[in-house]
Amino acid sequence: MVYREEIQIETAGHGDMQEITKRVEAIAGRSGMQAGIVHIFNVGSTGMIGTIEYEPGLERDLPEMLDRLVPPSLDYGHERAWNDGNGHSHLQSTMMGSGITVPFAAGELLLGEWQQIFHMEADIRPRNRRLLVTVIGE
Amino acid sequence: MVYREEIQIETAGHGDMQEITKRVEAIAGRSGMQAGIVHIFNVGSTGMIGTIEYEPGLERDLPEMLDRLVPPSLDYGHERAWNDGNGHSHLQSTMMGSGITVPFAAGELLLGEWQQIFHMEADIRPRNRRLLVTVIGE
Amino acid sequence: MVYREEIQIETAGHGDMQEITKRVEAIAGRSGMQAGIVHIFNVGSTGMIGTIEYEPGLERDLPEMLDRLVPPSLDYGHERAWNDGNGHSHLQSTMMGSGITVPFAAGELLLGEWQQIFHMEADIRPRNRRLLVTVIGE
Question: What region, left, alpha or beta, does residue C106 occupy, with left being phi > 0 and alpha being psi -120 to 50 degrees?
Fold first, then answer.
């Protein structure tokens, strides 16, 4: 069986993180399935989905880490071609990944107590984001 | 339901990127399923699959970023053991991941307009690559 | 169809890697399914799952690479909030990912000859880890 819903979020621009665990879990519940996997996917090439202990310290640390490893720069080939200032946004997103998969059972995501699902905006301006949540199971 | 096809590509060696979006989408179409997920997997430990805005700037930037973060070096334990010059290839591949999952519906991949699926060769020589595309849905 | 088993492992602390390919393959076999995907997920926010050529050189190189890119530091916001010394553990785990998906057929994982599945402990102390292995297929 397959069940899909879309989550819409508004982001505040580069490095903005939002926790979406409860919204994903509610979709798994509405699927009516008893067991399976949930796939969460950011539509677009400058956002990312992952798991993290969602707390204010790491909410600051993750974007800082990404800007340190893959900093904004005008030297990217992407900038020379498009000059839109978000070359690092694309590279950070590709490195971290557009989606993740999480197991569930009986309407609950099988995450650790300190393990949550986040979306991070990597683009340099606020965006309206569509996240596709696909439940596969029985 | 499960449907699988294999994509074969020839790569030109380290940092060679190829877009495979249309080939993956055609497989989702041939599956005959109406909704679900598509999993794309690189068989082998020195290639990677991801999503990116596929354009010449980023096609240069991604391999450069990976070589900056995880550079070629003779100091890797892998080199001391095997002396085959591709320690960084393995590490880049493990960091980026061997596969991704993408949602689809009615024969179309649910990607953003500027979001494509790529394969990147991380090994130091040309390779023939087998990519396994598994469609799961109904 | 959905089939799930749990793998339990004891880790020796930060950077400890363990190969779990055979244990995952045995679960795919016990599922009785003929084709599909296997999802392997680390429950908790300081462990990771990936694929690698599992050999002693890379077993040393991967943790070293991660500590070089995302080093231990008391400057992380996570440390200022919690002071538990594992800010880098969280960031390394989020960057690498909590889980992967691998295709299988007829009880065999469709990996390359030199491509294995590993768990790496990123936390700074030994942990008992629960890995959830979910088989989806037919």
Answer: left
Minimal CA–CA distance to B102: which of B38, B12, B52?
B38
| Among the listed residues A133, A117, A123, the one whose alpha carbon sits nearest the alpha carbon of residue A41 | A133
Residues of chain B with C-beta less than 8 angstroms from the C-beta of C102? 41, 99
CATH of the domain at C107: 2.60.120.460
Residues on C contacting A at a C-beta cutoff of 8 Å: 1-2, 4, 39, 41, 43-45, 69-70, 76-82, 87, 90-91, 93-95, 97-99, 101, 132, 134, 136
CA distances from C68 to B68, B106, C62 (A): 12, 45, 10
Alpha-carbon distances, residue C127 vs B20, C12, C58, C82, C99 (angstroms): 40, 7, 22, 19, 17
Q: How confident is the model at residue B82 (pLDDT cuts 50, 70, 90)?
A: confident
Alpha carbon separation from B107 to A33, B132, C114 (Å, rounded): 24, 18, 34
Q: What residues form DSSP beta bridges with C4? A: C134
The pLDDT tens digits of the residues spanning C94-122 come to: 999 999 999 999 999 999 999 999 999 99
Q: Are B27 and B5 in contact (CB under 8 A)?
A: yes
DSSP string, A22-50: HHHHHHHHHT--SEEEEEEEESSSSEEEE
Is C58 in Cβ contact with B90 (below 8 Å)?
Answer: yes
Q: Where are the alpha helices (DSSP H) in B70-136?
A: 77-82, 87-96
Look-up of token digits 């689809």? B104
> Structurally, how many domains does chain A consist of?
1
Nearest-Cα distance to chain C for B132, in Å, is: 8
pLDDT digits (tens, 9 = 90+) for A70-111: 999 989 999 988 888 999 999 999 999 999 999 999 999 999
Q: Which domain holds residue A98?
A: 2-137
- Please report the sign of the dihedral spanned by the C-alpha atoms of residue C84, residue C86, residue C87, residue C91: negative
CA–CA dist B138, B28 (Å, integer): 11
- Chains touching B by CB (3 or more pairs below 8 Å): A, C
Closest residue of chain B to C115, computed from CA coordinates? B45
CA A94/CA A88 separation, integer angstroms: 10
What is the Cα gyration radius of chain C?
16
Counted residue by residue, chain B has a size of 138
Nearest-Cα distance to chain C for A85, in Å, is 23
ipTM of this complex prediction, to 2 decimal places: 0.97
